[in-house]
Design a protein that fits this description.
Elements: E1 4-8, H1 12-24, E2 28-32, H2 35-41, E3 47-51, E4 53-54, E5 57-58, H3 59-68, E6 75-79, H4 84-93, E7 97-100, H5 105-119, E8 135-138, E9 143-146, E10 149-151, H6 155-165, E11 172-173, H7 174-181, H8 190-206, E12 214-217, E13 221-224
Parallel strand pairs: 1-2, 1-3, 3-6, 6-7
Antiparallel strand pairs: 4-5, 8-9, 9-10, 11-13, 12-13
Helix pairs in contact: 1-5, 4-8, 6-8
Amino acid sequence: MAQRIVVVEDEPAIAESVCYALRRDSFEVAMTSTYAEAEREAPRADLIVLDLMLPDGSGFDLIRQLRRDSRATPIIVLSSRDSEADRVAALETGADDYVTKPFSPREVVARVRAVLRRVGQPASTRDVAVGRTPLSVDASTRRAYLVDRLLELTRVEFDLLASLLETPGRVYTRAELIDRVWGDGFAISDRTVDSHVKSLRRKVSEAGGDPGLIETVRGVGYRVGDGIPTTLDGP
């Protein structure tokens, strides 16, 4: 059965070109142009391609709503807003990828396939905490815990934590994390990794944990520590 992509875009020319490219690649496509229509279509979507500026609402608000409702539907943002702040804000809110306009419809299709491929990959990590770290993940249910408290993570945040927990104490470079979490062919910057780590730390802190459990190794990357407080360097 074809996977269903919901394209939320109020510029007809852009929406039609993206939908045409997706249909040519054998996806089932629903095209919407408003926040209200996107809300109705979201429960039946395998992935959402979302413009941030809609006539009746903000794409940021839709991402927040879906994540607040614990919907893990992958979201790829399409936007003419190309500042680093906008990209980081969208990723921290819960988007899985960010594509700036103008773009090639073929690039969007490639991004869709890459995100869906990553979503379908099981987490290659242990299902219990290792060593002294109070952080753990359950690969079968894709749930993450601080001791016994559930962490509400986005898909990318879960995959990032799962990768770090594969060998607690080991330093993973940003390039390694990009390869493990996003996979080959993704044009992901170091800053994108940093923004997800920042968001992950915030959620650990909100759950009552020490954000320093996820340590920065200056000029190299990140590792999961053993629960001993540490001074953070970087985001």
